[in-house]
Amino acid sequence: MRKTYICLLAVLTLAISSCNDWLELQPENNQVSDEYWTNKEEVEAVLGAGYVRLRETMEQQLVWGEMRGNGLTTGSGAILADIFRINQWDILPGNDFVKWDKFYQVINYANMVIKYAPEVVERDPSFNQNVMQSYLSEAYFLRGLAYFYLVRNFRDVPLITDPYMDDQTAFEVAKSPSNEIFQQIKMDLEGAVEYAKEVAPTVWETKGRATKWAIYATLADVYLWTEEYDKAIAACDAVINSGQLGLLEGMVNNNNNWYRIFSEGNTNEGIFELQFDFDKSQTNNLMSWFGTNQRYNVTEHTVTLFADSDEDIRGEGSSYLEGDFSVWKYLGAEAETGIPRTYSDQNWIIYRIADIYLMKAEAMVMKGAGSYDQAAQLINQVRERAQISAPVSAASTELEMLELVMEERGREFVGEGKNWYDILRVASRNDYEYKDYLITQVLLTAPASSAPIIRSKLLDVNSHYLPIHLEELAANRLLEQNPYYDNLN
């Protein structure tokens, strides 16, 4: 853990005036000491560094959220061995994609802001209490979101709420149980709501920094995991009724308007998006991962989800291309044209309004049979936007209703880093009441030759979480390896 917490920040004195300034200023190789915190620009620079680190976790978000599920698989091109092994459930503690250091760097930057920002109010007359509180709100959001990724993937993780400021000091911390991590996440996010902005001065800030709606969206997701369904519904309703967001119209002038969510980014549907802009020298590797290198493709199972309706504007030519199974939503300039994007500067979308509708539908299902019709109505709102004329009807059992929600999520969020979490969340409720569902879903895309081995692994619920990387174990003597991986190396 000591290695993980080494600060990379430096004194950043330029004013924060644009997306380019704020997200591209890179720290020099200095520590941010106690003496650093003198004005609001320095506070915002540290906060910005947290967003930069979050942006650097993009491929881990993709791999962790997709490669153990059934929505994406490895492609036909330049595939990294460690990604292939995760996809095949051959995960070892030395796998580079199980490193958690960047998420803990996000947490550390957030911890710095939380600790030191209140002191800056006394030093900088232009830094008033309300602005300071809005920065704290963003810091709590970043910390809560980073821990949310960690707890879903590792279950028990070290809980750190103080900044690590001195790289000469040993920083060894044991794991905390997942229920404590979830409690901290909820405290952070619930506390962040009061002072969060509803809108920011610019569109990119409204979509790319933590607003009240980004916090509520994350809370709704967290409440689904902690089985607090009334709270999940209330959080979803806060977003839906905000007046700030809405589902895009599916087709406009015979053009696929849904595709604008990805081709343009920062649409009325977006809630929280990691920002990229070629004109500001901000690019990502999505076109390389999904196109040039063919690292990731959709599965045949994903294609079958769209087979029931030729009307669905999210299918062939939009989410994926027929034949090579590439994820067109990240590659194309427009839907159903075959015209590629010029630059790889698509935003990476963490939450958007369709997610809110389907999270609320899931929570309604878990409220009982009396709410199934309402859940179906929410699913149908998403389907209608996708131009599907045939509505779904409420099913008769909880699992059948959950499957309706999950299938719709499978269509709506192809390659958006959500598939594995959806499967695990449904399966693990009520002490793994639906473990068979998880096994069935994962095996839908497993090679026949390895299916029996993968099935035997999935029977042990400890295998549903990632191992702690060997470097982290070596650096932090208080860490214990996750149970399934004790004898693997």
What's the order of the H and E elements?
Answer: HHHEHHHEEHHHHEEHEHEHEHHHHHHH
**Largest beta-sheet details:** 2 strands, antiparallel
Structural class: mainly alpha
Which regions are unreliable across 5 or more consecutive residues at pLDDT < 50?
1-20, 24-30
User: How confident is the prediction overall: mean pLDDT?
Assistant: 92
Shape: globular
Strand content: under 5%
Query: End-to-end span in angstroms?
Result: 19 Å
Q: Radius of gyration in whole Å, from Cα? A: 22 Å
Proportion in helices = 40-55%
Q: What is the overall number of helices? A: 20
How are the strands of the largest sheet arranged? 1-7
Number of strands: 8
Protein name: Membrane protein
Pfam family, one: SusD-like_3
Domain RagB/SusD: 325-485
Signal peptide: 1-23
Please supply descriptive tags for the structure shown above.
489 residues, mainly alpha, two-stranded antiparallel sheet, globular, signal, SusD-like_N
Outline the structure in words.
The protein is mostly helical. It has helices at 19-24, 40-55, 58-66, 81-87, 101-123, 129-154, 178-192, 203-208, 212-225, 229-240, 260-263, 286-292, 300-305, 353-366, 372-385, 398-412, 419-432, 435-443, 451-458, 470-475; strands at 72-74, 157-158, 175-176, 251-252, 255-256, 270-274, 296-298, 348-352. The strands form four sheets. The chain has a two-stranded antiparallel sheet. A two-stranded antiparallel sheet has the order 2-3. A hairpin with a 2-residue loop joins β4 and β5. α14 packs antiparallel against α15 (372-385), α16 runs antiparallel to α17 and α17 (419-432) packs antiparallel against α18. The protein starts with 18 loop residues before the first helix and ends in a 14-residue tail after the last helix. Mean pLDDT is 92; it is low at 1-20 and 24-30.
